[in-house]
Amino acid sequence: MSAGRLKILAVDDERSQLRDLARLLRSSPAVDEVDCADDGHGALVKASAQAYDAIFLDVRMPDLDGLELARVLRRFATPPQLVFVTAHEDAAVDAFELHALDYLLKPVARDRIEETLERVVTAVAAQSGNGDGERSRSGSPEREILAVDDPRNRSSRLIARSQILYAQSHGDFVRIVVEDGRYLLRVTLSDLERRWEPFGFVRVHRQYLANLNRATELRPELGGTASLRFGAEHTIPVARRHVGELSRRISP
Prior knowledge:
Blueprint: E1 6-11, H1 15-26, E2 31-37, H2 40-49, E3 54-57, H3 66-73, E4 81-86, H4 92-97, E5 102-105, H5 110-129, E6 134-135, E7 141-142, E8 145-150, E9 155-160, E10 166-170, E11 173-178, E12 181-185, H6 189-196, E13 201-205, E14 208-211, E15 217-220, E16 226-230, E17 234-238, H7 240-250
Parallel strand pairs: 1-2, 1-3, 3-4, 4-5
Antiparallel strand pairs: 6-7, 8-9, 10-11, 10-14, 11-12, 13-14, 15-16, 16-17
């Protein structure tokens, strides 16, 4: 929560409904920023890349519906507050079993949105007071579980940050490499470097960010460069200017 104001993700597969919801949320003095996603998979990717105080989501969506999305979000180390905004009454019991903060029926009035936002502010303040969740240097909670895109199956997959061997810049995305595959995350490598430094990730090349907790060998190369190995299958280059500091960090 930025200076007492909320950061919110709005999710609905109907574009006109999504625009209306985002407009209502942005008009509230309690809200600092509203991001939007028009499907469950897109919402999961956004929610794993950055922290939201609350997610306002529809129930009925293709592929990954609101209830399925909520079940995944509840597994986050610091889950966002969940508010369902839907035209269907029949999912209310399931929603509250998932600890939803509120269940709003469309069309939603402005005063009803404001009432819900007051509840979100109270819940977020209580959560912050309990000190839940790891935090980056910016003060935003950092997720151990993140959703990444699997381009081969056109789907999303959940992985733990500690599983990651290294990240590599890849156009508008970062390629996330784990032992059993490669995935994509829409974020910059510089942003990951800043956020993941407390968890053992170090920039070793302009295109690579390495998880030193998973590295097994630093091997010198000609010209003063080096390569960093992660078991037998994965190797990345180390730029010459990073070799000395990296040697000191991984020495016993």
